[in-house]
Amino acid sequence: MMPEMDVTIFERSQRVLAKVEVSGGGRCNCTNSFANVTDLQQVYPRGHRLMKRLFNVFDHRDAYEWFENHGVPLLTQDDECVFPKAQDSHAIIDCFLSLARRYGVRIRTGEKITSLSQLEGFDNVVVTTGGSPSGKGLEWLAALGHEIEAPVPSLFSFSVADKQLQALQGLVVSDVTAMLPGTKLRADGPLLITHWGVSGPAILRLSSYAARHLAEREYHSPLSIRWVQLSEEEIRGRIGEQQKLHAQKQLSSYCPFGLQQRLWAYLLQKSLEQQATIRWAEINKKDINRLVNVLQNDVFEIAGRAPFKDEFVTCGGVSLKAINLSTLESRHVPHLYFAGEVLDIDGITGGFNFQAAWTTAYTVAQMVSGVR
Prior knowledge:
Layout: E1 8-11, H1 18-26, E2 31-32, H2 48-54, H3 60-69, E3 74-76, E4 81-84, H4 90-102, E5 106-109, E6 125-127, H5 139-143, E7 148-154, E8 158-160, H6 163-166, E9 172-179, E10 186-193, E11 197-199, H7 201-209, H8 211-216, E12 220-226, H9 232-245, H10 261-272, H11 285-296, E13 298-305, E14 313-318, E15 336-338, H12 352-369
Parallel strand pairs: 1-5, 6-15
Antiparallel strand pairs: 2-4, 3-4, 7-14, 8-11, 8-13, 9-10, 9-12, 10-11, 12-13
């Protein structure tokens, strides 16, 4: 905002923006249109009230305009996720680095900051260290008096010890509801069956909503999947139609709910066992009840997070109680600010976490540059 400012970036690793580079499969899902969002709590399980306040300063529309005005054309997909038209995260990275060079921003890599004493001589300090899964990266901030919300993983897939399900790896079911029984935690969207269990947007969203709930239970919990988004009456109606139209055909020959054949065969086996090969005319009321139940409430046991370190976001960080909610300045240390995932703000998958980073960074930039 003010080219005459003297800015230095300290980066612990050997290069900056590594997380941007790998995000979105290397394409960088940089924001979202928010077209399907009616309440920010839907997409920010933690920090939604603060995000609502800060969106008055810089929101997704502002981010979209900022990138386009700085030479990064964007594209909004059918799912409302926004990517560079180049479909390459380097479009975002090159934009930032080009601006840094233009304004003389110094970038010092391989430098880990663990104390404010390392930053003497600077008028303002902005902490943008991202999430700290182990919590160690937050210890120096806690020592300064900042309240810390214990960090736990968010946005992860579930390990499910069901070999028959795992055998369906690679299948994508376009619209399911994933739920944790006994809670109000649920998420809709596509589901991906993997060789370790389940993933995909519905599962990643649920993991975000349930981050603390699952951490408290050491990632062991029942999981319910609704495979068909129809009412019980509608499901029974379609089964009745099949009984009339295809009475002498086997149940496995055709799925009246649009599910893939392999998944349909799995669900028939799970609900009817040996009777899965019977004809439509032969299923009785008890069989129908069992089939309806597995389509609407198929229960699994979460046996942990995925065996890979694929968590991309951390729930927790510097408590919002520790900052001025209008300026993001520390309540304990003057001229110390926070932006991004280091704060206890995190969103579901779909570009919402990057938007939180842009919004909080812009807010802080206004403060330290004296622009209101």
